[in-house]
Amino acid sequence: MREVVFWxxxxxxxxxxxxxxxxxxxxxxxxxxxxxxxxxxxxxxLLDAQFIAAIQVLVYAGAIMVxxxxxxxxxxxxxxxxxxxxxxxxxGVAALLGVGLAVELWVLVRIVRGGGFAAETxxxxxxxxxxxxxxxxxxxxxxxxxxxxxxxxxxxxxxxVLLLAAIVGAVVLAKRKI
Amino acid sequence: MTPMLIDLSAPAGITLALLPEIVLTxxxxxxxxxxxxxxxxxxxxxxxxxxxxxxxxxxxGTVLWLWRAGATPDGLPLMIALDGFRxxxxxxxLIGGIAAVLLAQGxxxxxxxxxxxxxxxxxxxxxxxxxxxxxxxxxxVFLGLELMSLSVYVLAGIKRRSPQSAEAALKYFLLGAFAxxxxxxxxxxxxxxxxxxxxQAIALQLADSEIVGRPMLALGAGMLxxxxxxxxxxxxxxxxxxDVYDGAPTPVTAYxxxxxxxxxxxxxxxxxxxxxxDATAAWQTTVxxxxxxxxxxxxxxxxxxxxxxxxxxxxxxxxxxxLLVAVAAATTQGGSAFLFYAFAYTLMTVGAFxxxxxxxxxxxxxxxxDDFNGLAERRPWLSFALAVFMLSLLGFPGTAGFIGKWLIxxxxxxxxxxxLAVMVVGASVLSAGYYLPVIxxxxxxxxxxxxxxxxxxxxxxxxxxxxxAAVVLLLFGVWPNRALDVARDSGRQLAVPGVIIGLPR
Lengths: 178, 505
What we know:
A: about 80% helix, B: mainly alpha
């Protein structure tokens, strides 16, 4: 059952991602991206990370995608534009990068199949079922909140300052009259 | 004196450890709140500048107080370091920030850039820099770098009417965001190779020679170098620098060339020496080549420049090369040399840009070196100061620039990098070819454009910056002992202490 759900979500995520980058129309691309994000949320549930899955749907598939669509509509990019791939050089570089990535993936799969990373990952093991056990004890949110507000409190606070600086900067640069 | 032990896991301890950053953030918040109401008037703008200046001075005070109190972490520093290197770099950045604000006060009014948010962004960038110099964790390094970069992207484009300024901001933003991606990927790979993002914990992991040999570690270190290389404008990642320095308002350029670059280097030195000190094989050769390329290309291209602002931009690229030599030495001695050079470099760069802002108009990017002909007759003190800055940038004996370069040479030679030391000397000789003509123009050529000298005006703040920078450079050129001791002590603390109590889970 788990296997079937995993392959189902992965397949949908990959297909939607492919459609997202191949569609000419920006709106269609954005909608396919929504589907990819939803499928990823499904995969998170399979990994016992229900809270992350919910956040993924709320923040990414919800809020951020609305902003994407908003910008697309605002700039009137709804219609299909000309392709970005122009000339032989562009195509050549794209093909080269694509082939490189495919080779990398192939090598990785071969190493994992051969048990090559076993020695490296053995140093930091997470026993099967460990995540579910911690979640039982601390709750889905507590498991995330505990390290976020204790161990990573300083980075968390810096991030809030970072976001404030970004907002101020955006207003300074973009507001018509300041 | 007994050192002040700070327990970084307690709320009070972490507040104390982050006091300078908290002061700066609080100041920025109050400033933002007030300028929400008091905005358009030039008076309000002057007030915002003064307020920011006080904030920077208070932060400098807290840094010096914590430094003198000998704040030491109780156990492993988890997120933020408490050592001489942090305080020394913080002091350098704050001095650069104070100078930039002093310059900006007169300059922004003159160029009619009445955006008081400028000062809030300077404060935010300063928080980011302090965090970069004081980070004990790669996450803090990254967040500090982003905080600094985001603020500076906006500062570069703060002159909203000028297309050059907008181009500078956009170019800086796109390439900077790209570089951040590299940095983040590098951090992820380092985490993959060692299982931690804490700098000292990474060093402990790397004591195990099996991990040192992992390709993932080398790849991660390489990505980190690309990311930092962009930020410090090392060749071949320097393409953005001349255009951005050229297009940004001059006080911002001074801030970028001095403090922002020093912050990038501080983070690089910390990561390279503290975390990867045992894995020099993974990065030393790369830094070696970066240093050589940066010195050669920066100096050669600077030779061809006729416009002073662009020449200073390329000169700052060349100086990134000298600082990379200190990193390539891969010893704490190199870290000390970096500290002293960064201090001297901040002063001479800010000073040179201050004179440029005084003499030029309207962005200063079209001011030729020939425009300085005969400046010494009309403005002897200003010319003298610029001569001091040029000689110090050149590394002339009697200036702090010479002592700094000598320290870098010593660090390189002691680390067995004699070739690199020879390259530094050769590059310095080359740099005489563009620093000396400025002095020659001022003192030996007849004046052609009298209006340049007549128009040269420095506001009170700018005058203070130029005078203080020139005096300090000369002072530390002949009497560097005290500063040398401080730099040596602070650099030494970069090494991971032998016994560390309380490793993270």
